[in-house]
Amino acid sequence: MKHLFKFKCPITSALDIIGDRWILIIFKQMLFENKQTFKDFKESTENIASNILTVRLNLLLENGLISKSKVQTNNKSVYYHLTDIGLSVTSILVELGIWGENNLKDYNPLIKKENTYKASSNKNIYIKNLKRKYKDKISKTVFIEM
Predict the structure, then answer these.
(1) Rounded-to-integer distance, Cα 130 and Cα 138, Å
(2) Predicted local confidence at residue 121, as pLDDT
(3) CA-to-CA distance for 100 and 116, rounded, in angstroms?
């Protein structure tokens, strides 16, 4: 069942889907940390509860932001990957990372200046390369659609 939107505003509608903390963490994990399976997400440092993870993955699946499949060589595990629509969230994640590094490191001593978000000087090229690398990685695996 697709998400039922309550408002005509595109920002509010986008936030209905991707405005959730766990959704953005799942996107980050898929794009930057190469997480692909339920187990990968569950074992991450963010420690998402299984029931929340299940609901969020289903929301993303239902709205076409991710797809799921099995790998031809491992028919047991389900693999999740970003669709083109899901991959279009990349620029939002990069902006959020840059904003966090620029504005929160004085308040959160755990934030380290990472190479991940040093893209602020050449953001568009960085985002384009990040998307290409993700697509290349996915295309090297033979998936069986579910």
Answers:
(1) 12
(2) 66
(3) 12
Q: What is the pLDDT of residue 27?
A: 97
Phi-psi region of 48 (alpha: psi -120 to 50; beta: other; left: phi over 0): beta
The C-alpha atoms of residue 76 and residue 65 are separated, in whole angstroms, by 23
Name the helix (H) or strand (E) containing 64. none
Q: Which residues of the chain have pLDDT under 50?
A: none
List, in order of start, the domains of the chain with CATH numbers: 11-145 (1.10.10.10)
Give the contacts of 57 (CB within 8 A, at least 6 positions apart).
26, 38, 41, 66, 68, 80
Reported pTM: 0.86
Q: Are 51 and 1 in contact (CB under 8 A)?
A: no
